[in-house]
Here is the input.
Amino acid sequence: MAERSPSGALMALLMRSKLFLVLLIICFLPVSAAAGTITETQGSSSGLNDPGVIHLYRPEAGSIHSATINDIINGPHGEVIFATTFGLSVYNGSWSTRHINRDNFSMGLMDDYVTALEYDNAGNLWIGFAGGIQVYDGHVYTLIRDQDLLKSLRIKDFQRWNDDMWVSTGNAALHRYNNGTWTWFTPYSRNGPGFYEADSLALDPAADILFAATEKEGLWEVTTTDDTVNFKKIQDPGDPFGLLGHVRRDPLGGVFFYNASQVVHYDPGNGFTPIVSINDISGGGAYAINDVAGSPKGAVYVATDNGIYVWENDRITSHLSAFEGFGTTQGVDTVFYDARDRLWFATHDDVGYYADEKSTESRIAFNKETPTLSPTTGHALVTISPSQTPGEIPQQSSPSILDQIYRFLSGLFPFIPASH
Here is the structure.
């Protein structure tokens, strides 16, 4: 018996489906160029060295594993280390990621959600989590979650200050570690911190002052005289800058305080100097400020929901966005200027950096607090390779954009194959 031909209705459905498929492929073609592990494009010259290259990394196996970044620091030998919501990632020309080791916390992370990072004066890497601290000496992870030592286990930030490690913890203000001794500075104690929770810490090495920003309890400076620690409020919540609840260091001296609507610079000699507000960013609107980074060359990079704004010479000099190759979406959540003069940034979808790769100039170290490893410490360098990583996600190739489209459509229309 001859095979029956499809009905007119089925033929029409097939034609519509094929047309939909063609249109969908056309829409996705511009995205596919940036969907790989790395994309290189020529960068904009505005506010950066020219010429240069932008590298983009999509979170996947063999790359950084999450674009949501809680902290970034320089490693002792040029590597850049990322505290992400899905592991501890390291970039040193290639990516490696350390994950939770549920069987043995001494050989891997206690959690995949990393909140803070910092090196101490002996070259050990301190790693913060929502439930404690691990200190990695290059061989073993030491777990700290004894509430006799840490009155709150929720780690907000670290800051090394000479031989001390300062820790901002949940609603328990600040802790300090020095040579095996822990000190808790009780909230609202006599001569102590007048706050419960510091969002972030930043050191001004020029003035030798530690600054703490809180979201609701003002801005604070911490100084030391002999063995005495002094806390001083520099802005009350009702003052003009009292609600700038985040702080970042300025490599040229002082710090940047900021919130979603404003960035100001502060140093003890000149006080508060406004830098950028949302009114300066395309007329304001909903373009919130998300992060700030200063470079040793004087530029200030402001990450917003509408890309990165570059402030130099008392004005905004350029706007860097997806149109210049800075990610595949307009919103930038994180910025960081590393020790090799690379501007790192993270969007919801990508992590990347801009580098003047044709420059032959010697690099100037950005993070003056990052220690070099002493020959007497005996610690191995903190270089995390995939072969060392118990919790590493197996390397695997990701499906192409076209494969993903076909798989999506095959779920809707059974007569379309799952791959092309």
User: Anything to note?
Assistant: Confidence is low (pLDDT under 50) at residues 1-15, 17-38, 359-420. Residues 322 and 328 are 5 Å apart (CA to CA). Residues 8-32 form the longest helix (25 residues). Helices lie at 8-32, 401-412.
